[in-house]
Design brief:
The chain is of the alpha/beta class. 37% of the residues lie in helices and 23% in strands. An 8-stranded mixed β-sheet has the order 1-5-6-11-10-9-7-8. Strand 5 and strand 6 form a beta hairpin. Helix 1 runs antiparallel to helix 4, helix 6 packs antiparallel against helix 7 and helix 9 runs antiparallel to helix 10. The longest helix is centred in the middle third of the chain and has 22 residues. It is elongated. It starts with 9 loop residues before the first helix and ends in a 6-residue tail after the last strand.
């Protein structure tokens, strides 16, 4: 049986397309329980998109939570397999505060995780699938990239202490040049270092100028190595034909206690918040006792609920009035429906029903 796409909502349609996209590249579906130990999410609260966690006490006294995130559950319920890479995708419901309504919601989330001996090949594949995911939803999208390794290494080079890093990264995340200048002046940071850090607050018109500015402040071997990887990944996407859609944005300063390399977000025209978010999270793996590397992303389908949603002008194409002969009436309804019409069979027209045409069974040929 073929299912007409027009009966699917935007988020439902996107989920079907994304699952096919990931499966076609060899990713296996991962299914999981709706519940996890509450402690798992409390320990990694900064990693969660939403602060709200719905918890309850199980019959055996354990404190459980309705799953607010999939990545943490996958890490918690999978094992390291030395010398291999696990490629998993999921289409799951999570329970958290919605960005749009600010109320608790059951939200459908689709995404993928690549766990194991992750190298440039796997990172490039995940980036490509992330861009393809956005492309499958809308042709008007932006894919923003940054690299935690580059930012962290530069802060290391300048011996920026931990407490000061948080203030600097907070200013960078808001792209507040004045705030960052104030922090540097108040803490006796030299003008040379300050000018270097201000690179992270700039808005760049193209990736070439952003990479050029970044390369200028990459001094140590460690920073240069991270920059080379970042530059390679950016140019990989450009060579794949996505140059006009990608943007380098250093304000994507996710928590450095979790992320270690490439980080990214995706946006589509018409939705103010990001609908896709991901990155390389080796530090999260280590924090949870894992030796593997990992990279992945999630698509937040709740953001698509009203995307391209146009109110139908009619509730039904045809109102078919029942003539008294049930068999003839239902046969006629089936014939009209097979021709692509939506049909409402009734004895009289319901009050308020919007319809294109009204027919009696005897009028079916008119």
């Amino acid at each position: 049986m073929n299912i007409e796409s027009k009966i699917l909502k935007s988020d439902e349609r996107a989920a079907c397309v994304l699952r096919s996209l990931y499966r076609n590249l060899g990713y296996c579906q991962y299914k999981m329980s709706k519940f996890e130990e509450y402690a798992l999410y409390v320990k990694n609260k900064d990693f969660l998109v939403s602060d709200g966690i719905i918890s309850f006490t199980d019959t055996n006294g354990r404190l459980l939570a309705l799953k607010p995130d999939v990545t943490l559950s996958i890490i918690n319920n999978s094992k390291d397999v030395p010398g291999s890479v696990q490629k998993l995708y999921y289409d799951e419901n999570v329970y958290r505060i919605s960005k749009s309504s600010r109320a608790y919601k059951e939200i459908r989330q689709t995404g993928l995780e690549c766990i194991g001996d992750v190298g440039l090949l796997e990172i490039c594949e995940v980036l490509l699938l992330a861009v393809r995911s956005l492309e499958s939803i809308s042709e008007n999208y932006i894919f923003e990239l940054s690299h935690e390794g580059v930012v962290e290494s530069i802060l290391d080079d300048y011996n920026i202490i931990s407490s000061l890093r948080k203030k600097i990264l907070s200013a960078v995340s808001r792209k507040s040049k004045s705030e960052l200048e104030g922090i540097c002046d108040e803490n006796g940071i030299s003008s040379v270092v300050k000018e270097s850090l201000l690179v992270f607050t700039e808005n760049y018109n193209d990736t070439d100028s952003a990479l050029s500015e970044l390369e200028r402040i990459c001094k140590s071997e460690k920073v240069s190595k991270c920059f080379e990887e970042f530059s390679f990944l950016v140019n990989f996407l450009k060579e794949a034909g996505f140059g006009k859609y990608i943007k380098i944005d250093f304000s994507l300063t996710n928590d450095m206690s979790y992320y270690s390399g490439i980080v990214f977000k995706g946006y589509i025209k018409g939705i103010p918040a990001s609908i896709l978010s991901g990155g390389q999270y080796d530090k999260l793996m280590k924090k949870m006792g894992r030796s593997s590397g990992a990279v992945g992303f999630a698509v937040y389908l709740d953001a698509l609920e009203r995307f391209n949603l146009e109110e139908e002008a009619y509730d039904v194409d045809i109102v078919l009035l029942h003539s008294g002969n049930i068999a003839d009436t239902l046969k006629t309804a089936e014939s009209l429906s097979s021709a692509g019409n939506t049909v409402r069979v009734c004895s009289e027209v319901p009050k308020g029903l919007r319809y294109r045409h009204i027919l009696n069974v005897s009028q079916k040929g008119e």
